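Anyone have tokens for Cbb3-type cytochrome c oxidase subunit? Sequence:
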Amino acid sequence: MSDFTSNFWHLYVAGITLVSIIACLILLWFSGKAKAMTANDNTTGHVWDGDLREMNNPLPRWWVGLFVITIVFSLVYLAMYPGLGNLAGKFGWTSAGQYDAEVAKANAVVAPLYAKFLGMPPEDVSKDPQAMAMGERLFMNNCAQCHGSDARGSKGFPNLADGDWLYGGTPDIIKTTLVQGRNGNMPPMAAAVGSPDDVRNLAHYVLSLSGSPHDSLRASLGKSKFGACAACHGMDGKGNHALGAPNLTDDIWLHGWGENAIVNMINNGKVNQMPAQASKLTEGQIHVLASYVWGLSNKTATAAK
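Reply: yep, here.
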């Protein structure tokens, strides 16, 4: 990767840009100085359609003028704006800066809409039709790519419409998740569990915790191996919101169900990331979005007036 981020490529791009401009000047000069072999009637000898002859006339002055103006403009542009590798130009303009300015302008326009909800409890915001319409748009633009348009998630992406939460489902915790993001890490545990057969036995014990179909003999043998998992999931397997450790007793499988899926998880572990949204959304937007997400799994409460 360092080959693509070294200073060489900055110089390479700048060099190619300048050489291209210089080449255009040379081409213009050469076309004005070069003399083509012509006949006495100032033709090149090329004939089409019987009598259509190519003349050897110089380029029109207006065309040459436009060509020169274009080259001068390109040099001025490169001095003012980025175009020579990573040189910023005199104006210091960047597409990222332009984007940030336009986002800030748009946020300033909609700020009053969010301001009236910012002082309301999330439970009350989740009952407001206008706030929920705004929350739905925010969700579609920022969350639906992973959690789905219906918020029911998919393999590896939590369902936000049920009552199962890795870190807790209160409005404050949801807001913290949005602001800071989450980094879930299940380390490979095969070495701590024992042999491949021990891993399979443990997988069946984990299946038994939720009443899922399992081999009872293997589950009984795997129970003693669950101690390697208890530090995060608890001795009862009910998980730990402080660590984001899933509840293994509720028959909700974020990364897949069955012996093979659990064995793979024990052997290889899993790293999941929920990106922080604080840099993308304003405080008011996060408040409305958190209220919307909370309302998805508390429909009875939000329906009550």
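The chain has a mean pLDDT of 90.
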